[in-house]
Structures are given as C-alpha cells and as structure tokens.
Design goal:
The protein contains 19 helices and 14 strands. It is of the alpha/beta class. The protein has two domains: about 325 residues, TIM Barrel (Alpha-Beta Barrel); about 150 residues, Glycosyl hydrolase family 3 (Rossmann fold). Strands 9-14-13-12-10-11 form a six-stranded mixed β-sheet, sandwiched between helices. Strands 4-3-2-1-8 form a five-stranded parallel β-sheet. α2 links the parallel β1 and β2. It is globular. The protein starts with 14 loop residues before the first helix and ends in a 14-residue tail after the last helix.
C-alpha cells in the first residue's frame, strides 16, 4: 500500500482526532476467516491490518464471500476486535444468499418491476417481503446495514452495471418498489441504503471501469432520476450512497461522489436528507483513475459525505484527512457531525448491533438463522414462479441433443455449480452440454447470418440456455453477442429445441418474437439453481408431474 498522506504540517493529530477520522472509514474484508481464503486480496484487507484498523476505531466493514455460517462467525470476530458498535454491511441487493452461500438468494429486483406492470399490488407486497427476508437474514448473521435498495431508474437497456439491479424502468415503479423493500429491511432492525445518488440508471458505461457522463438537464434529473430517492427519503431511509458520475448540470468539475453542490447542496439542503451519506467504493476506476487515495477521501468529506467506503489505501486516507484538518481544508465540527450521524444510526438498532448492549455473541446468535429458513425459501420459490415468463406451446424433441449454455465465465459463475439444474437436468435425459463462455471462439463460425458453427456442436436438436445480465466490471450488457442471428440459424435448420433466457429481460424481449411456432421459450429473471429448476420444469425437464409447456 502507498504511504500518500498529504502535506506534512509538522504537528501530530491528537488521539481523539485520529479516532474520529477512523470512525468515518468503511473498509472491506472477506466473509471468510483466514487470509488465504480471500477471493479479492487486492481489495480485502488481511486480518492483521484489519484488526489494527478496528482497534484504532475504524467505523465500518463491508464483507463479501463465504458461507452464511462463516459470516456469523466473522461478524462476531470483527465486533470483538473493534470493541465498539460497528457498522457491518454487504451488497446483498438480491438477498443475503447472493453473496453468502446457504442464505436465501432472491430474484433480481427488476423482476418485480416487470411484475408490477401486470400485478402492481402483488409486486409491492412481494417487494416488502423481499426486504423483510433480506433484513431478517442479515441481522441473524451479524450484518446491520444492507447496501440497498438500488433507486436508479434503469431506463437504458444498454446499462452495463445497473440493469436488473434496479427496481424499475420508470420513476414511479422504481420508487414504489424500492421504498417497499427498504421499509421491509428497516422493519427488521437493519439499516438500508438508497443508491446511487443522484441516479446511475441512464448510463451506458460502468463506473467500476470509467467515469460515466450523464449530460441531462436539471429539469430532466428532477423528473426521472431524483423521484425514487425523494420517495426513499420520505420513507425514512437510513443512508444514501453516492454515484461516481459526472453531471455537468449540477457540477462541471467533479463527480457526484466528490461534489459539494450534489451532496451538500442537492441531497442535504434541497432534498432535506438528514441520515448518513456514504460514498460508493473509492477503489473504483472512476475515482482512482483521477484522484489519489488520500485526496479522494478528503474531497468526499469536503463535499458532504459522512462515511468513506473502501478507500484505495486506508492509511493514505487517514493521513490525508488528518493533514486536511490541520491545514483548515476540513472542519472538525463537520466531521464530528458525521460521527454523530453514525452513532445515532447505530443507536437506533439496539440489540441488533454487534458490540452493543444485549447484542448477539458468537455463541448465541439472535435471532436463530435457521428459524426463518423455511419461509424465506418459500418466498424465494414464490418470487421465481411469479416472475417467470413463457411462450406457450412447443413439442418435446424426439431425441436429446445439445444443451448449449452461454455464461460469462465458468470460473466466476456461482449460479452454475457442478449440480446446477441447467446442466444436470438435461444431462439426466441424455443431452450433451456445451458451454459457451462469453465470446469464446469455439462455437462461432464468424459469419454474420450464421454465427454458430453447427458442425462443431455435433448432431441433434439444440436447447439454448443463455445466462446474460448486466454486472459490474463487465463493461457491457452483452447486447452485442449475435444471439438473434444464432436463434434464427437454429430455427431455419430445424434444430432449435427450446430457449431459456436467465437474467436479462432485454435479451428475452429481443429473442421471444423470433421463436418459431411450436418452439417453447422461458424467461427467468433469476439465474440461481432454484430458478433454473423452475424454468426447466416449464420446458418439461423437471421431475415427474411438474408443469411443462410442451404438448404431448
């Protein structure tokens, strides 16, 4: 790690001031206990450094990876190291099981946005239950802060990073469902977080990789981007996360995360938000490509942020903040006000806070994580079934053939373990699996009108299963892949047995009209094994007696 710490004024900050600075940092670590188990050592602190920072007063930790059981042990461990109430958070936008094995993994939020078109009241009720499930499981395992809901309006289908993480494609839907979710989370005694302010939905680039530009007028922002955040604030959302975006209509010099006109002027003064403002991760390239770790942290606090999430170098951030205070760039009273907001947020959680009086210990988790497992799994199944979409009809293939599965990478596909239904169910009926990882060359012919090299796939009908969705660090929503041409090619050759799209509603909307009469297709917003089993059951590849859409 670098030692960037800003200018040396010669004076050493006092202990109370250093502890105040530490409180305003949220650092990242693995949900697993041992250093060698870290999945992302570039960003996840090793235990020795993490413990030192917590003992010095660092105020929060964001966790990723491991099982639910490991997470419970880890959260208790971090609370002991800190010796004070600690913010423990995770990006569990799709339920705790999205990040921690063994907990409940729910369909992406946009699934309920589509359901809201058909059954608005049912969608709202499910969104609130979704939030309760997430909050309840988070609290049971030691987390007290859910970094959701996404309040961005995903009105750009090419958005590579928000996409299915949003609750809606218009302000009314996104605001209503996100608010129902956050109310469910906070009813379980867990903080929620509206993100990414003032709105990351209408971008075609990923702020993990570059700094997006949102060139909309102030009036457009007020009409589309801001209403879901206003609704969340009115509902009492505990925190708001910033976006790494350039918005010239608000600030032509700095991204929103580092902009005083955005955070203090718009969010605090105009919208009246009084809770915690937390930056998006400062390790993202939108920030690190332009600012050093220390300067970024100082600018975020100058702009009005209360908490600095994942500085690229915690030591550099602490040193630079101390130097800025001594130089008069930062005001101590402002930072003390931020620390007080943090204290109030933690105090409002009571016994749910690790380290607080009556908080759960490693030997006595509270509430029992297993007690709610059955209803939470029932909710997961209900959500999958409520949000499946299918083309009617279809004839069962006369013999098995090729199970062609598209995924981004077999090495980074938690939804596709060895026993995944997308592989296991067809193979049990004699289908031969072929994996297409992103744009791997093996199945492609290079021809625009016939992109698949069918001779390389082997003989027989082809079941096409496409795992496609926008994801951070991907750089695109995979819209450039030639699946419309491939689907038409398979149909023209008489080899298309069926289609399943997991994740992207935009790809499904593009491909469904291309299905020939009599060819079955299913769309599942979820990609997890539960969603795969349900989608394939609809194609007649489930257990005996399960519903299917093939005629016999």
């Amino acid at each position: 790690m670098s030692s960037e710490a800003g200018p040396d004024t010669g004076a050493r900050p006092d202990g109370a001031l250093l502890r105040l600075i530490h409180q305003l940092l949220v650092v990242r670590t693995s949900g697993k206990l041992a250093d060698h188990q870290r999945g992302y050592p570039r960003w996840e602190l090793a235990n020795a450094e993490l413990r030192s920072l917590l003992e010095a007063g660092v105020g929060g930790v964001i966790l990723l990876g491991g099982s639910a059981a490991e997470l419970a042990l880890r959260c208790a461990q971090l609370g002991r190291w800190a010796g004070q109430p600690l913010l423990l958070c995770a990006d569990v936008e799709e339920g705790v099981g999205q990040r921690f094995d063994g907990a409940t993994w729910l369909v992406p939020p946009l699934a309920l946005g589509r359901l809201h078109r058909r059954e608005p009241e049912r969608a709202l009720a499910l969104a609130e239950r979704y939030g309760r499930c997430t909050g309840r499981e988070a609290r049971a395992l030691g987390l007290n802060w859910v970094l959701g809901p996404v309040c961005d309006v995903n009105n750009n289908p090419a958005n590579p990073v928000i996409n299915v993480r949003a609750w809606g494609e218009d302000p009314a839907t996104a605001g209503a469902l996100a608010t129902a979710f956050l109310q469910g989370v906070q009813a379980e005694g867990v903080l929620s977080c509206a993100k990414h302010f003032p709105g990351h939905g209408d971008t075609s680039s990923d702020s993990h990789l570059t700094l997006p530009l949102l060139a909309h007028s102030r009036e457009r922002l007020a009409a589309i981007e801001l209403p879901p955040f206003q609704q969340a604030i009115a509902a009492g959302v505990a925190s708001v996360m910033t976006a790494h975006l350039m918005l010239p209509a608000l600030d032509g010099e700095r991204p929103a995360t580092l902009s005083k006109p955005v955070l203090t002027g718009l969010l605090r003064r105009e919208l009246g938000f009084e809770g915690l403002i937390v930056t998006d991760a400062l390790v993202m390239d939108a920030i690190t490509g332009r600012y050093g770790a220390g300067e970024a942290a100082v600018l975020a606090l100058e702009a009005g942020a209360d908490l600095v999430l994942m500085p690229a170098d915690a030591g550099a951030a602490i040193g630079a903040i101390a130097a800025a205070l001594q130089a008069g760039r930062l005001d101590r009273e402002q930072l003390e006000a931020s620390a007080e907001r943090r204290r109030r947020a933690l105090a409002g959680l009571g016994a749910g806070v690790p380290g607080a009086a009556g908080a759960p210990s490693a030997s006595r988790p509270d509430p029992d994580p297993e007690a709610a497992a059955e209803p939470d799994q029932a909710l997961a199944l209900e959500l999958v079934r409520a949000t499946l979409e299918a083309s009617p009809g279809g004839t069962r293939p006369p013999q098995p053939g090729v199970n062609l599965i598209r995924l981004d990478s077999a090495l980074a596909a938690p939804f596709l373990p060895a026993t995944a239904p997308a592989v296991a169910k067809p193979e049990a009926q004699g289908w031969r699996t072929v994996l297409v990882e992103g744009r791997s060359p093996s199945p492609w012919s290079g021809l625009a009108e016939a992109p698949l090299a069918l001779e390389r796939l082997g003989p027989g009908p082809v079941l096409l299963q496409l795992f496609v969705r926008g994801n951070p660090f991907r750089g695109s929503a995979n819209s450039a892949e030639p699946w419309p041409a491939a689907l038409s090619q398979l149909a023209a050759s008489g080899r298309l047995a069926g289609l399943v799209v997991y994740g992207s509603p935009y790809l499904w909307d593009q491909l469904q009209p291309l299905l020939p009469p009599g060819t079955a297709g299913v769309y599942s917003p979820g990609q997890m094994p539960l969603a795969q089993a349900e989608a394939l059951a609809r194609l007649g590849m489930g257990e005996d007696g399960e519903q299917n859409i093939f005629t016999t």
